[in-house]
Fold these 2 entries.
Entry 1:
Amino acid sequence: MRFLVAMMKHETNTFSPIPTDLKRFRDWGLHEDEAVVRAYRGTNHPLAAFLDLAAEAGADVVTPVAAEAMPSGIVQRGAYDYLTRRILDALANGAYDAALLDLHGAMVAEGEPDGEGGLLERMRAIAPTLPIAVTFDMHGNMSDRIVANTTAINGYKSYPHTDMYAAGEQIGRLLMRTLKGEIDPAMSWGNVPLLAQTLRMGTADEPMRTMQQMCRDAEREPGILAASVFGGFPMADIEIAGLSAIVVADRSREKADAVRDRLLDAAWARKDDFIYQHEPLGQAVARAKTMTDGPIVLLDHADNVGSGGTSDSMAVIAELLRQGLDDVAVAAVWDPEAVKTMMAAGVGADVTLDLGGKTDMPSIGAKGQPLRLTGRVRRLSDGQWIVRGPMYTGSRVTTGPTALFETGGLSIVVTSLHHEPWDLGIFTSIGVDPAHCRYLLLKSRIHYRAGFAPLAKAPLTLDGVGVTTSDNDLLSFRNVRRPIFPLDPMQRAPRPRNP
Ligand SMILES: [Zn+2]
């Protein structure tokens, strides 16, 4: 047997000013051919599960590409064409028994708002009967084109995404049984007009905890092979953005439809709980100041790198300095220029920097505003480590040349590449022990829980400035389907939801 195995992942924030070219994929991870196996075998990724299942089945694998970039703006056409071409050429030039793909589901490319749908449609045109199994991130925006051109789909059930390997193994085994003729997958999908907010999708919290438990319960019913609820990615101004469900049943489309309806009805009934409630920044920081039992996690969620944030918005840091919080470790401010200055000055040097604020954010009408700060260069590093926490376990990651800058009561990790802090390595790789800090200010939303939840005492969301804002009033949506909640007041979900 011969399997085509590939990965192409990007969560595209159409409001983000950060360009997404091929270099951005190379900065995080772009591997080709045999290098794919070396980079991902043994890691917590769907792709690693696909490789293990192929080995178990005694199948040869062809791995044309495995590419992922940190979330950012619309993927440039050249990058999208390069990555899809790698997969399509491999498919066209070989004979395969199956394809196993590790995709995200929220990729928007220039001229192609449904990046994954576009890829799968063209794969199906080349190989009309090829069994194709795909895993998608819980933040994927699903579509007709995605489902119509795929044999079986599974999504992650945990956010933070600590079950990526498990999701791959589940759908991969399902495909192996399909190849043996034991089962015949029938898929059903649908969506509700709900632009759920990722800050309200953590699976330790309601309502997503119940939604994912409903999926697990459904999978124990006879004939149901996989059930997934996708919260979707709301920072994408595209027609298909929003919450959806996909159910795979053995032979029975009716069974799949019934579970899909149950999941979508439950999500719609709790639509208000999928929307974040704001608190003024100054008030939240003042509340943090009264807390004593650290480490207290403060979340600069409007500049969440893992949703396309610029990682250099200084609004929350400025407020912490203004209110005089002490013993705060910050991860991280993106500012390659400041890192260069600190590298030139050396460890122990006192420097004055115009830190951060290098990126304008036209989508929210905000100019980049650096903060002039005087402080000390405490440490320098190459920013590389291997993840030992539960998400992306075993992966080598890098923040590029990195410096630790101490100013006022803050120790700020300053990086040369964008990176969401979900692993303790962001601090420990530069000599900061996060357990010994009173406050940790993280440019993250939910993924921080992967590494930090065991030591975080009281997570507090701080409403700063950035392109991952949860304030819809700041964003102008032009392309998403209307009406959609909460942009429009809606009481009933229109049917049918599976066109
Ligand atoms: Zn995600």
Entry 2:
Amino acid sequence: MPRFRMVIQSVAATIHASMKLFSPALALFVSMMTAMSAAEKPDAQLATVRKILREVPLIDGHNDVPWQYRKRKASFDEVDLAGDTTKLHPPMVTDLARLRAGGVGGQFWSVYIPTSYTNAAGIQAVLEQIDVTHRMIARYPETFELALTADDVVRIHRQGKIASLIGMEGGHSIGNSLAAVRMTYRLGARYLTLTHTANTDWADAVGDTPRHHGLTPFGEEVVREMNRLGMLVDLSHVTHETMRATLKVTRAPVIFSHSSAYELCRHERNVPDDVLRTVKTNGGVVMVCFLPGYTVERERADMMARDVERKRLEGQFGEDVKEVGAGLAEWRKLHPEPAPCSFVDVADHMDHIRKVAGIDHLGIGADYEGFHGPPIGLEDVSKYPNLLAELLRRGYSEMDLKKIAGLNVLRVLREAERVAAQSQHAAPVK
Ligand SMILES: [Zn+2]
């Protein structure tokens, strides 16, 4: 839309030129306008990005589509990814056409269950979510194919399809059973996030009161068994202490399937610089998240204040979704939404992680379908090229982009496979 872009640019330029006092609010406005204008721009960088994504798969670390089926109690006909999912209520940001438009070549589909599901109920829910993911992949055989290894990902991408991997979100999914780790691996799970938002009996989660201050001896056994199998250890959601403790134990590189830089946005979910440096030594990868509350401080403050209010309302009204929703709407009237962030802010996280950990330790883990209100220019799964084009504008090379898009994660998968192959003869831990 060139006319729209020209209008935006000229408005931004006029304000820029005419204002003598350049306030922070105005700076924010101008940067938003610039971001909107760049996001719309069909420039040479976008053409380069598209070429790169034909050569190397863009592998996203976290997408919650499988949970959408459960949450909406929807069949595959009701949530048909071959259709236009913007028409659903509420709309979704993922469908086949937009995955294609975004150049997605590999996707870790998240097998997520709430932390209220524990032990047998948790394992049942996990099996059901793995089942949904397999059936979703089978439903669109021309687009998806299950990937179990790095070689699978490369082969499936070469065939013009989207390599579909399974990642389990939350250590509560294994019900304190190493057998469950082994069996979910056999069902295709290739990463386990050690916690979600509540502590497990063996690892601490951001959002809970620290209990173990790292990993318990059983938590160390879980990590060692994952190494032995070749299941990636995912440190998104765990506390900084648990990140550090895990990095001491693991023999394979770790991933952060959807996390950003703590230095730029002080949400404890994000990765602090000392851990980024250890990730460099470990050979792992931080897959940068698009969630605004992990991206800029003003969004984080808003998200945390809203969460406090939601918890207060839940204490008052229990499970009554209507009352809680009405209460939050009232709260919002008194607490206006902060100015949105954009793909430019997400690119800043890439810059920071690159500076501290290096280009070999960067990836993408948008967390689509897991949050609402995405950054400008990253509204849905068709928008990844906007971010990569921005990195080209910042001087990243084509090889740098290939690494971020997928080569780094493929290297981590291969290394985890190598560690597993070396330890197959070791007896199972328990
Ligand atoms: Zn998450």
